[in-house]
């Protein structure tokens, strides 16, 4: 239980010390400090360009940082220092003295010196060590320190092992090592070498993840870094090696990312703090013997699937939505004991329509229109889920509980919607019995053999995807699949999937780069309501299609050219191809199984309902079919400029 986990935290003074470089987020220095402080960071690195662009003195910067409760952990970078011939060497020391002046006014004691890329640098470990020893002497006179970092593209030093050897030979208390995860991991340097470095000689640890891309190291570093957990580098293993040294100083994010520089400083700062807490939580669980100051929290939570999807609507749209659900084989199974909320059910699928005139659902409807504003997840422990989410910076949702209602734990999710949590160990498992009065017609209806929710699709601006990926994988026991580009006739949509370990929870995240795509249109028209796509599973897609047709359902019409290609590409029996064609069913296959998809025409401003059948161990989501169904869906869209009826 979470309370037991909390009781194990006895050392209140043991605190995870976190920092972030100003270059990581957008805004001027005042805006950056405010966002960084609000996210819960303890410190901030001052990137020199941010300081140079500031219209004020170093003392002003130091005062601003202090006023927001931030310690200036580092001033950086000092470039092209070591191994220079004269007269460049003497000028480098003069430059360093000027930077020391700035540091003292800023109120920071640590300067980062990155390994030289100067074409005139002579190299040589002993030569560099002599330079650093003299620099250490000068720093010591002012009570300052110098940290040396190996750039992955350094001219002579591009490996932390060489940087450490220089620091070791320097043998000066005011000269230490700066470890940067990107520079080490980008060059695939053996991590065991970190474990032998004395903790007191590691002056600061900088962290950045990145997607695995084959490109020039400098360009990769300057444009594609992201938060730990958002990329593909082995960040946990890196920090396990650092933790093994006994290091207990600042963990600082240094993120160069074009999208982050244009995004919300507040949101990206929150992501950054979350990424550090999650990273160190992983390390603690892998290395329980190590003493680490990590906020207490339960382990990542397993998800057993989606228990319900809830729509916010007015009465008119609720009637249309209810008619659609009945045509899809759902029956009205219950009505809320005290609210205007109706439950529709088929198999294990629960769809809720909320037409309340007050409360959160109504507020969401006013802003976004009729939309799927909430989903309920089946989790192992609902209270523990919220506790972990809160420890990772998620926004907890509270609403007044009315008569006959349970207090269902919830957090805010994509588009400002809600994620509710239900478990089997409390009365939350009886929510449908406690909160709803059964409807006598529930046993009747024209079901179409839908069994469960296969997956839910959420849509967002493309630059928000890393944030929500981090959100889900840090809270829940899930994995993420590689990103896939979905071709919309109007542009690309980036898609990535979050899956539970047993595959009963599947969530597709779709990032729109253009408002002209179907995904972008949905975001624009619903003001980013989040949930756009609901995929419902059946064990027999052809039987389901026939029953849907009997209910008056008209499927999304797929181009006949598609079926000619599918038949040839997969070598399908003509009879099978004809069955697909006649029912407008899409088909895909991988090495492990087959996948069948049937789409309803879009509802509202682009809400998608899909029926799927998986045969064998098919692991995908029909991505090769996406361009063809998107083209069909866009043919039915309201022309641009035409008012809504």
Short overview:
The protein has 645 residues and is an alpha/beta fold. It contains 22 helices and 25 strands. Helix 10 (235-244) crosses helix 12 and helix 12 (265-286) packs parallel to helix 17 (465-475).
3D architecture notes:
The chain is α/β, with parallel strands linked by helices. Helices cover 35% and strands 24% of the residues. Strands 17, 18, 19, 20, 21, 22, 23, 24 and 25 form a nine-stranded mixed sheet that branches. β14 (410-412) and β15 (418-422) form a beta hairpin. α6 crosses α7 (160-170) and α20 (560-570) runs antiparallel to α21. The model is unreliable at 1-13 and 641-645 (pLDDT under 50).
Strand content: 15-25%
* Helix share bin: 25-40%
Structural class: alpha/beta
- Shape, principal axes of CA atoms: elongated
Biggest β-sheet description: 9 strands, mixed
GO molecular function: 4-hydroxyphenylpyruvate dioxygenase activity
Pathway: Aromatic compound metabolism; 3,4-dihydroxybenzoate biosynthesis
Family: Belongs to the bacterial two-domain DSD family.
EC number: 4.2.1.118
List the helices and strands and how they pair.
Elements: H1 2-7, E1 18-21, H2 29-38, E2 43-47, H3 48-52, H4 58-67, E3 71-78, H5 88-106, E4 110-114, H6 125-141, E5 145-149, H7 160-170, E6 175-180, H8 181-186, E7 202-207, H9 217-224, H10 235-244, E8 251-253, H11 258-261, H12 265-286, E9 303-312, H13 315-327, E10 331-336, E11 341-346, E12 349-354, H14 360-368, E13 371-379, H15 382-391, E14 410-412, E15 418-422, H16 431-435, E16 436-438, E17 450-461, H17 465-475, E18 478-480, E19 484-488, E20 491-500, E21 506-512, H18 518-526, E22 531-538, H19 541-550, H20 560-570, H21 574-583, E23 586-590, E24 593-599, E25 608-616, H22 626-635
Parallel strand pairs: 1-2, 1-8, 2-3, 3-4, 4-5, 5-6, 6-7, 7-8, 9-12, 13-15, 17-21, 22-25
Antiparallel strand pairs: 9-13, 10-11, 10-16, 11-12, 14-15, 17-22, 18-20, 19-20, 20-21, 23-24, 24-25
Helix pairs in contact: 2-12, 4-5, 6-7, 10-12, 12-17, 20-21
